[in-house]
Amino acid sequence: MEKHEDQSLEVLQTEEQIKKKVAILGESISRDYADVDELVLVAVLRGSVYFTVDLSRHLSIPFILDFIGISSYGGGSSGIVRITKDLDVNIAHKHVLMVEDIVDTGLTLNYLLKNLIIRNPVSLKVCTFLDMPGRRIVDVPVDYKGFELPDVFVVGYGLDYHERYRNLLYVAKKDLEK
Ligand code: IMP
Ligand code: MG
């Protein structure tokens, strides 16, 4: 656990706020997919693992958990994405919900959606923990979202800065100068 006294961090969403929001999202997804035999929950490695696990505990519907691993060339939001670990499940004729940590420029999600849609799922929707609509370069559909944020760099609850801070129980704005 990183120290709370880190001077470069400013808490934006507390642990309590996150817990409440994740429960609400889980209930809403469970309602919407109540008639679906089996949902495939696709977590995008690595950032969304924390959110996906917590969210899945609030699902009252049957689901399969699967993972897709990606790596962006240059590390940032280039939109040029490589799949480092593919799904194990065949999603053809299945209902699929992609779970993201953050939709920023939308380039990564856009690539992933294009990649998954050609596998012929019955439905393909997106649930993101954080959304930064003001940063969008490509328009992507977001069906469920936890919190909307302005254009800031954030860490915690799965989100990292050079692989640090993922295990914070809260989301914080990270001052990159400090
Ligand atoms: P995109 O810009 O929507 O393609 O987002 C690409 C990826 O960049 C996200 O999945 C995150 O891993 C990372 N990312 C974008 N914004 C932030 C941020 O504020 N903090 C940490 N990671 C971020
Ligand atoms: Mg990511």
Question: In summary, what is this structure?
Answer:
The chain is of the alpha/beta class. The chain has 3 helices and 9 strands.
Descriptive report:
This protein is of the alpha/beta class. It has one domain: Rossmann fold (3-Layer(aba) Sandwich). 21% of the residues lie in helices and 31% in strands. The strands form two sheets. It has a six-stranded mixed beta sheet with strand order 4-3-2-5-6-7, sandwiched between helices. A three-stranded antiparallel beta sheet has the order 1-9-8. α1 packs across α2. The longest helix is centred in the N-terminal third of the chain and has 18 residues. 31% of the residues are buried. The site of magnesium ion has 3 residues, from loops.
Write the layout of secondary structure elements.
Layout: E1 9-13, H1 15-32, E2 39-45, H2 49-56, E3 63-72, E4 81-85, E5 95-103, H3 107-117, E6 123-131, E7 144-148, E8 154-155, E9 171-174
Parallel strand pairs: 2-3, 2-5, 5-6, 6-7
Antiparallel strand pairs: 1-9, 3-4, 8-9
Helix pairs in contact: 1-2
The structure holds inosinic acid and magnesium ion.
Bound molecules: inosinic acid, magnesium ion
Q: What would you say the CATH architecture is? A: 3-Layer(aba) Sandwich
CATH fold description: Rossmann fold
Q: What overall form do the CA principal axes indicate?
A: globular
Number of domains: 1
Percentage of residues in helical conformation: 10-25%
Radius of gyration: 16 Å
> How many H/I helical runs?
3
Q: pLDDT below 50 for ≥5 consecutive residues: which ranges?
A: none
Give the quaternary arrangement of the chains.
single chain
Q: What sequence of helices (H) and strands (E) makes up the elements?
A: EHEHEEEHEEEE
Main sheet characteristics: 6 strands, mixed
- Secondary structure class reads alpha/beta
Which strand order do you get reading across the main beta sheet?
4-3-2-5-6-7
Mean of residue pLDDT values: 94
Give the termini distance in whole angstroms. Answer: 19 Å
Please give the number of β-strands: 9
